[in-house]
Predict the 3D structure of the following.
Amino acid sequence: MAHPPTRATEASARGDLNRKPNPTAKAATMAASNAAWPRTAKKPAATPLLGDSETTTTSRGPGTTAPVKPNANDRRPSKSGFKAIHREVHATGLNPLTDRYFLGWAHNFYQVAGLVKSIELSVGRAFVIKPDYGEDLIEAVEKAAEKLNVTAGVFWAIGAVRKAAVSYYDQTEKKYVKHRIDKPLEILSCTGNVSELEGKRVIHAHVALADRDGKAYGGHLERGTEVFSGEIFLIETRGSPLTRGYDETTGLNVLQI
């Protein structure tokens, strides 16, 4: 099977950038490439580029096949996905074994897709929530999520607060430093998510605020932020639970991805 280009092959391609192509060598390279990845008259069916959704059989080389079992957590490009890319490139006339642009693109594709940690979610129900005057903003989200049975989701809020409590995470000391702002403030932005830690619902949010003079405040949203008037938009996510666990490096309870 053709493997993704290495830095060595990419460097080699760059070295040939100013040379005129050798028709004989190019023809031989294309013939070898086509033998490994033969084109067909019919356009191949759409192939997932990241992780096959079901068990498939893909070519390991000319005349050989082997079953490939999917891995739900593996977000690297699938072999069949790369084969589909290769065919599309052939259709444009590019040579994926020597073309400098393709070599660089494929290298970046594998690097990014192979390293990004992610889980796929789908959108569930959506709600607009009206918190009460004087209600704690975090508790308003908690209460709504519990009542509506939302264990995973994202939310944002707009409005104003009578006073606020925020914190800053000291990365050296690995602890939150809390700040209280005892005056009316506008909510410039407030976004967060709903997840679970050891079976309990957790609300994590950051907020940006401004006073009457336009001075801004912000940080990790803490309890003690009292609503003057506001609107909360809550979107439920489905497909995978959002759970948190302790991370030794940061000292935080981070999403488990």
Remarks:
- The chain has five helices and eleven strands.
- Residues 100-115 form the longest helix (16 residues).
